[in-house]
Specification:
By secondary structure, the protein is α+β, with helices and mostly antiparallel strands. About 35% of the residues lie in helices and about 25% in strands. Strands 1-2-3-4-5 form a five-stranded mixed sheet, sandwiched between helices. The chain is globular.
Amino acid sequence: MSAPVIRTARPRDAADLARLGNELSRLMNAPQAFSVEKIARYAFAEPAHFEVLVAEWDDKIVGYALFEEMFNTDLCEPGIWLHDILVADSARGQGVGKRLMAAVAKAATDRKRTSLWWGVLNSNTAARRFYDHLGAADDDARVMELSGEALRALSQSTSI
């Protein structure tokens, strides 16, 4: 078995990305909203809303990292926000996750970005151990979200 290759996702990867994205959603008890059409629309159309790196091993996509540019107001510098990283069960413990994280970090440093941020559920102790092993700092921050009806209600709550 060869080493996994990390590369930029291509439009033909949309089905694998949707499958893996829904696997991550299932693990997080979140709605499984990924579809080939949404991946094509948001990742591969202009303008792209995010970037994706995939881990390909023996001609099979076994992981991905989905990220975008952001601005880090703590440092007053641009950075990268990693939305998702997932390695399929069959490839875990083989260094695929570390390769994906290293590739995102390289994208950040190549672009002269000064930080890489992401969120992790408190309950995901395996991921938190993995990130600790990489040297990540736990800022004790909490990611908040408004969506659906709560977002619509707030958008209509005040006069502008």
